[in-house]
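Postdoc handover notes: sequence design on the structure in folder B. Input tokens:
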């Protein structure tokens, strides 16, 4: 009987658990360890953060789902991995309390990002001066602060709202873009848009870069870029922007940054939502003699080392699609896999930049929900292969993977909107697509309109159905 342990029930780990449980759960021991006893559908937090959606509608209990798939559930925080002796220690967060020991033959680390607010002094909702929409509780705090600003505007006060990235190496610009456009729409609905100044502040090289080198599409025989598209949209929405900025320090109502040229500047705000740097979730990796074996498992940022080619200069990396991992397997401990944000990418997708003061202002590579689900499935399929046949047959790099993203720009079914963006592949692959973009120009697509708002809502409903393992779940693609 094989033992499979999975740490983290986000898009990546939960997908792995459903596939592994469904194929092996009856005859083998599958265990999920997750800090929360509920799944969180993160993409809909952009609506919850403006008070247009109940946070509770983004969550469901995990245990019921795992019972269906014969997956054991430990509600707790994994703190130690012992790769030589093959077990994980978790601090229980359920009524039992204490520690749980979970033995494994195969381990999947799918812990998502650690929100490193400490990487920028003064950032964040707990000990800092800004808000976040990266977790359910952060979103509730951001919503309340946003609604407080709205009340002030109703009383005639002007408010400055700044949304973007709070670290020179932050990622997840898509979420910040969605949040500021939803704020714009919400303020119109509440009749106070004229009282607000909106600013998008980002470390991106260009508007619409999103950490994936932007998106270029062919329409009516002409090339359009995500930069032109967002430029036009922000002008229409009366939203200002500042890009190529690395936020390095935040005080109450003010953030300080450096730009590409090394110049320093500051931005005032009444309400700020700035995405922090993402690092790997801190866990101890302990060898059989009690020694620290972290260097064999994680990179200095805490992300799991997998089958990527690390340490290449950007130009070399950008021209070689094979530097990206395909099976998400740790090279030192071959029974450890990683999926979603937890795996260490070989480097950035967007062109990096170091300013004259030595500050690297570079959008880190995003691993969105779709990529996280897809990597979770590849890992699951390979573990199923290994248990049943002793060999792996699945392999997909981000240079071969499509991603669809629906960026909400207002949730209303009547006057909402969304940008539907399909990129193939996620990481430009100049070997397969020898055009300037390195992408398939037939598949890569960008549309905007009300239909997108309907699609975004449908995707919420469809995924909440799939992720609860309801009828036909496996037919719905990741
Ligand atoms: C506001 C917002 C909007 C977004 N919108 C979109 C979108 O529209 N489309 C899209 O594709 N992507 C979107 N994303 C990105 C998407 O949410 C992430 O790519 C995705 O959640 C990553 O999945 P993951 O499984 O790797 O990590 P996570 O979703 O972060 O899941 C990790 C899980 O591991 C658990 N965990 C962590 N450490 C431990 C531990 N030590 N022990 C036990 N459990 C642990 C966590 O509690 C969590 O449940 C958005 C992100 C944000 C913040």
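Designed sequence:
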């Amino acid at each position: 009987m094989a033992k499979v342990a999975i740490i983290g029930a986000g898009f990546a780990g939960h997908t792995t658990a459903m596939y592994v449980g469904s194929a092996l759960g009856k005859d083998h021991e599958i265990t999920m360890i997750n800090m929360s006893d509920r799944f969180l559908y993160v993409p809909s937090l952009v609506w919850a953060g403006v008070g247009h959606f109940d946070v509770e509608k983004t969550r469901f209990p995990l245990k019921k789902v795992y019972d269906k798939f014969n997956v054991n559930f430990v509600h707790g925080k994994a703190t130690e991995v012992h790769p030589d002796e093959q077990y994980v220690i978790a601090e229980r967060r359920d009524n039992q309390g204490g520690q749980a020991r979970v033995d494994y033959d195969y381990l999947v680390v799918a812990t998502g990002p650690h929100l490193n607010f400490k990487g920028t002094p003064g950032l964040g909702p707990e000990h800092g001066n800004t808000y976040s929409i990266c977790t359910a509780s952060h979103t509730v705090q951001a919503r309340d602060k946003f609604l407080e600003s709205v009340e002030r505007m109703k009383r005639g006060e002007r408010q400055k709202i700044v949304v973007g990235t709070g670290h020179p190496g932050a990622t997840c610009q898509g979420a910040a873009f969605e949040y500021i456009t939803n704020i714009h729409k919400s303020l119109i609905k509440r009749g106070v848009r004229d009282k607000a100044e909106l600013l998008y502040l980002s470390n991106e090289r260009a508007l619409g870069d999103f950490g994936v080198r932007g998106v270029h599409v062919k329409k009516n025989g002409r090339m359009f870029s995500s930069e032109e598209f967002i430029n036009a949209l922000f002008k229409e929405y009366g939203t200002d922007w500042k890009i190529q900025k690395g936020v390095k320090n935040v005080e109450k109502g003010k953030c300080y940054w450096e730009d590409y040229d090394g110049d320093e500047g500051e931005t005032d705000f009444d309400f700020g939502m700035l995405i922090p740097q993402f690092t790997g979730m801190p866990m101890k990796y302990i060898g059989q003699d009690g020694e620290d074996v972290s260097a064999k498992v994680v990179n200095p940022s805490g992300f799991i080392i997998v089958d990527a080619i690390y340490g290449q200069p950007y130009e070399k990396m950008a021209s070689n699609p094979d530097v990206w991992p395909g099976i998400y397997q740790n090279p030192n401990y071959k029974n450890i896999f990683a999926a979603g944000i937890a795996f260490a990418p070989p480097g950035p997708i967007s062109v990096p930049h170091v300013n004259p003061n030595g500050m690297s202002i570079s959008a880190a590579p995003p691993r969105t929900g779709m990529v996280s689900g897809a990597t979770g499935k590849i890992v699951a399929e390979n573990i199923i292969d290994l248990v049943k046949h002793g060999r792996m047959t699945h392999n997909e790099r981000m240079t071969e993977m499509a991603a669809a993203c629906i960026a909400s720009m207002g949730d209303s079914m009547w006057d909402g909107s969304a940008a539907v963006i399909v990129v193939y592949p996620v990481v430009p692959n100049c070997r397969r697509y020898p055009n300037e973009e390195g992408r398939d120009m037939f598949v890569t697509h960008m549309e905007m309109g009300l239909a997108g708002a309907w699609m975004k809502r449908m995707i919420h409903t469809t995924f909440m159905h799939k992720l609860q393992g309801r009828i036909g779940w496996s037919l719905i693609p990741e």
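Context for whoever picks this up: The CA atoms of residues 175 and 438 lie 25 Å apart. Don't rerun without checking with the PI first.
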